[in-house]
Amino acid sequence: MGFIDDELQEVSKLCQNDVNGSRLVSCVRTMVRVEITKTKFKTIIVCIQFSEDYPHTPLLIELKSKTLSVKLLDGLTEVCEKECKKLLGKAQVLPLLKFIRNFIDENPLVCCYDEITAIKKILENDDELKLKQKYSCIGLKVQRGLYYFKAKIEVPDNYPVACVKLEDADTNFPPLFTRHFLGQGREIARQCVEPPLKKQTQAPFQPSPSLKVVTSFLIKAVKTLPQEHCQLCRQLCLPPSPENAETNETADMHIERLYCGHLFHLQCLVRYMKTPPFHGGKKCPTCGKRIYHEKWGLSEKLAEDRWAHQQARSRELAEGIHEGAVYHRGVEDPRGISEARRISHEVLSKSARHSVHLVETRKVNSKDLHFYPYKTQMTQELK
Ligand SMILES: [Zn+2]
Ligand SMILES: [Zn+2]
């Protein structure tokens, strides 16, 4: 028997044992065909032909996959050819198959090769995308001005059936925005792999790759946020220097994000919510989406009454009358108008926080009482 026949015999005997997850489809002189599978998505079909003068010339290799990137396979083919050149004069098939299997094991990110290439194209000079094959994760750092956002994006073994995980955020954006980046990023990832609750009449749900959509969202959010304006006063929401950003969530200049995605200073939002017209419910002045919180259940009539009452009260305060008497609780105190104003403002701010569709509000316990004392107080005042 010749060299090739001996090798074919050895391959058919040892392949399935020596090469994890391999299936020998054909093993004849004209073609050796082996399917190597780590997961359904990480499957490579290796087609091998013996060259003239084999084994003194390298094997002829073609790699195929229904799921992996063509560019990745092209690159891998070149590397395989180099491997075979190291083995001239010896049997090359089994070492080659083991090499490919090893490559899949050591490079878990092969399953998102095209996505990674696409992400690199949208990054700018000082941004970073570090591949950590050993941990099957990607280190992302995005910057805009003095603001930065860093996170680890893990790619699970059964990707894209399971979605990427967003971990270890490190950023100098105020906490509200960090929560938004992470919350929204994770939600986008989840939607890639979980069917919508509504039953669909069309084709059955198929999980889709989540790395690029999540990463593009993060990059875009970080790049645009420092340039966004308050939808009412039109000032920039974030100061150029991150140290000066307002992190106290009850402060006037704290930034609120509505469900529609638009940003407002808390004080601007409170003013807007408390100013007529109330007819038809309050809507985002920019995109027209409604900004009521459904739990508020405030009628237009009551909103108007409140507004009228608020106007009357500020007139009283401005005129310096009813000092302390305006408030039934806690303000009969000679510190007078400024204190009354402070408390008035505090109460309004808190209630407003619960009157709008804030992203975070979903996490707030509905028993949270900020709104209710206000309602009670207002009702008492209106009587
Ligand atoms: Zn504003
Ligand atoms: Zn809006």
Automatic annotation (TrEMBL):
Gene3D superfamilies: Ubiquitin Conjugating Enzyme, Zinc/RING finger domain, C3HC4 (zinc finger). It comes from the Eukaryota. One of its GO terms (molecular function) is zinc ion binding. The keyword Zinc-finger applies. This is RING-type domain-containing protein. Keywords: Metal-binding, Zinc, Zinc-finger. Pfam families: RWD (PF05773). Residues 230-287 form the RING-type domain. The keyword Amino-acid biosynthesis does not apply. It comes from Habropoda laboriosa. Residues 6-107 form the RWD domain. InterPro entries: RWD_dom (IPR006575), UBQ-conjugating_enzyme/RWD (IPR016135), Znf_RING (IPR001841), Znf_RING/FYVE/PHD (IPR013083).
